[in-house]
Amino acid sequence: MIEVSGLRKTYGEFAAVVDSDFSVAEGEVFGIVGPNGAGKTTTLKILAGLVEPTAGEARVAGYDSTEAAMRHHLGFLPEESPLYEEMTATAYLRFFADLYGVPRPVADERIGTALDRLELDHRDRRLGDVSKGMKRKVAIARSLVNDPDVLIYDEPASGLDPVTTNSVLAFTRELRAAGKTVVFSAHNLYHVESVCDRVIIMNEGRIVARGTVDEIRERHGETTYRVYTDVNPDPGIDLETATTEAVGDRFRTTVPTMDAVDRVREAAAATGGTVVDIRTREPSLEDVFLDLVGRPMPGRHGAEGAVGETPATADDAEDERGSAVESTSEAEAGSEFEHEPAHESEAGGSRSGASK
Ligand SMILES: Nc1ncnc2c1ncn2[C@@H]1O[C@H](COP(=O)(O)OP(=O)(O)OP(=O)(O)O)[C@@H](O)[C@H]1O
After folding, report:
1. 299 or 39: whose pLDDT is higher?
2. 12 touches ligand 1 (CB under 6 Å)
3. Quick one: which atom of ligand 1 is closest to the CA of 42?
């Protein structure tokens, strides 16, 4: 449904998008993530026919993105979407449906369906008086009045409260179920992980990783090992890039290799202690992002992070992801420590007094 090849956009000497290639299949939800200035919006605007590429091409629904006819197949949600404040949601959406020449009865049905699915109340209130979340929902409904095949959404859930964010993400899944092709950009990795079939990570105009979230994690991330000891391992022994934290009455040292696990064992022994548990931890998309981009996802501690079951902080996320994986690998590690099985609650316990 979307084919992008050799895409480049420069502003003077500055390259906002460099040699971008990707394709999006019909009915797929495709995510573009990256830090500020990565080139996400520029890419989306090229797809939407609002910015002309300097080189390369983007084909959308069989058209070159610069062809006017392409827009009949496209719904675009810009990052900022000012609405006509004096209009009600219904009047506003009818107005756009009229612009597309959609017959009124068809438009009303489409608008009603979209607003029902988006759970939008106060449809007859002036848009200037409704909440930010409701405005965003109206803007999303606007992208659907022409019943497009392809939806291009720039940060659809950015800055929304958790309930509204969940509603927007659930709606995106419904669009996929209805056979729509959706490309959206996000700062928040949870949005991407929970909805997207495939993802690209952009940095400084270039695609630095691509694939499903699992593929990206496998290709670019590294498994780490968490070694629990009953003493703080002797810092005199080389533990590579290990970090040690106090967890309840134990110490958890995170290391990158099995060799390093052995050194933690030696380090614990040198301090008169022993290893009581070892668990593996798969990398999160957040870890991969940090490695590839060199900085954490912006706003990861913000309100967006507290969506639904999403952990409130990155550290909580780490523990939750870690424990999910850890529990599967426990049996493996447990054979060595059968006499002292790990308890999730102990391992995931209080961080008070944590030291590095
Ligand atoms: N019209 C323009 N003229 C000059 N530079 C531009 C223009 N539009 C975008 N840029 C630059 O191109 C780079 C990519 O911008 P873009 O908006 O695509 O990034 P982004 O990944 O969407 O960032 P954000 O997450 O902050 O929205 C930025 O450095 C931006 O300043």
Report:
1. 39
2. no
3. 18
Nearest to 141 by CA among 190, 77, 222, 189: 77
Give the torsion through C-alpha atoms of 70, 75, 78, 82, to 10 deg.
120
Q: Are residues 110 and 181 in the same domain?
A: yes
Q: Quick one: 207 and 305 in the same domain?
A: no
Task: Give residue 190's domain range.
Answer: 2-218
pTM: 0.73
- Measured in angstroms, how far is the CA atom of residue 36 from the centroid of ligand 1? 8
Among candidate residues 162, 193, 218, the one where a domain is terminated: 218
**Domain for residue 208, yes or no?**
yes
- Ligand 1 pocket, residue 16 CB under 6 Å: yes
Provide the pLDDT for residue 98. Answer: 94
Residue 153 has pLDDT above 70, yes or no: yes
Please tell me the residue having the least CA distance from ligand 1 atom 7: 11
261 plus 123 within the same structural domain: no
Contact 33, 289 (CB under 8 A): yes
The least confident of 19-33, 61-75, 169-183, 297-311 is 297-311
